[in-house]
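PROTEIN DESIGN WORKSHEET
SECTION A - STRUCTURE
LENGTH: 93
TOKENS:
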């Protein structure tokens, strides 16, 4: 793989991860709203619904954490590629 293919592949992977996270978040939020509006839970069922919704929120947080980490990694790699290489010291003869 040459130098031009690697950043393109990284961008594509990041875009795919971001798109999946956006879709996942939208579905999770929609499902949470439906559950909250349509469920008339009492007692243990209410506790179970709360735990399931909390699990969904944790999963969304983790997905966005992964997106942010991937973005930071891409930025570090981009800066590393843009840095000028240090001059090479020549040995004295």
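SECTION B - SEQUENCE
RESIDUE ASSIGNMENT:
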């Amino acid at each position: 793989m040459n130098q031009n293919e690697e950043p393109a592949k990284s961008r594509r992977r990041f875009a795919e991860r971001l798109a999946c996270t956006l879709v996942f978040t939208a579905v999770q939020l929609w499902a949470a709203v439906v559950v909250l509006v349509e469920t008339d839970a009492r007692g243990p069922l209410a506790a179970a619904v709360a735990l399931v919704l909390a699990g969904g929120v944790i999963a969304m947080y983790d997905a966005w954490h992964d997106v942010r980490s991937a973005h930071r990694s891409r930025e570090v790699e981009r800066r590393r590629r843009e840095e000028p290489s240090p001059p090479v010291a020549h040995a004295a003869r």
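SECTION C - NOTES
The radius of gyration is 23 Å.
The helical segments are 5-38, 44-82.
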